[in-house]
Amino acid sequence: MNTDEIGTKLYNIGVSYKKADVETRSAFSLSKQKQIALLKDAKSKGIDGVMVVSTCNRTEITGFAKHPFELISLLCEHSNGTVEEFVKFSNIFKSTEAILHLFKIGTGLESQILGDYEIVSQLKQAYQLAQKYGTINTYLERLMNSVLQASKEVKNQTELSSGTTSVAYAATQYIIDNVENYNSKRVLVYGLGEIGKNACKNLLEYTENNNIHLINRTHAKAIEFAEVHQNIAINTYENLEVEIEDADILIVSTGSDMPTITTKNIKPDKAILILDLSMPENVHKDVKSYENVTLVNVDQLSKITDKTLAKRTAEIPKAMLIIKKHKQDFNEWVMHRKFTPAVNALKESLLAIQHDELDLHKKRLEGFNEEHAEIITSRMIQKITTQFVKHLKDENTSVNQSIDVVSKIFNSSI
Fold it and tell me: So where does substrate get bound (predicted)?
């Protein structure tokens, strides 16, 4: 894609924890079904190259558009957010800024908990979903491959993700820090997405609690998980309220568009700690009206683990150097892809001149050494095209203008 020719630019638009609170992020959150609908809509509108990621911390669209409002409209049409809210709490990145932003997301530098790598799998899923529905062009494919390579290198070569500070871990840490005799408490985990699985694993790894229970709407998935993690008891969705009544701690990670826990699920006098790891929030805010309920959301959990974060912060310069290298490699690919047609066209024009001149001098000059002349002129052609490439790569060069000038000089479609 030559974006200059069709007048489109790469944009990244969306809302994140940096400006938007949980309630606002919830409004712009997109379920998988809504993401699919958005991608189909974008394709039907002729948007070439678009992907969307929606997590507990951010909902963002990366894609090509003549104006960012094309992408903003898509987001507002398929979420519960409004344009007015978007203007107040949004981020809009264009071209090189959008590319850098994507690299920083993929390496954990933009995570609410610095170095949190849950975002990498979410980014991969967003990319794969866009591939499935045909909204990934060559440019975005190459960019995402570069981002994922940088992500792998940052994880392997730095300590940016040292220690454990994911939202799921933060929930376990909150329990350890705030609940007396936490190993003897009955814990119910409701929901078995990635965060729910991690919550169960962290409880098993970092506590000695043998009273962990699990409910998932799809019971077969809970059975499968419990077969591997045998210290977890499972129950069916129909017994959710019974399990909540017996629980001291409830961890909600259901990933629904609507609240899955309301005042109807909890008795008014029930004493319970509820950790809502979902986005949008899956515990209705009215639950806080119950005197004996303590409700903690993802924003509160993200404030945990300051010591680990201090260590990770020191690794940011190393991560940025890795990003710089991969970003430069990507930019060189873009430049090569953009210049190659022009350089090839110039070379073809010069070869045509070479052929005509060799033919002419072969007829006019007696004893003309065509072989030597061809070697000399071929070297001249190589030097001219090499200089042309250097000129195009110069950051002060107006690429389109240079190509137009050379095209006019040689009367060709360079």
Answer: 55-58, 111, 116-118, 122
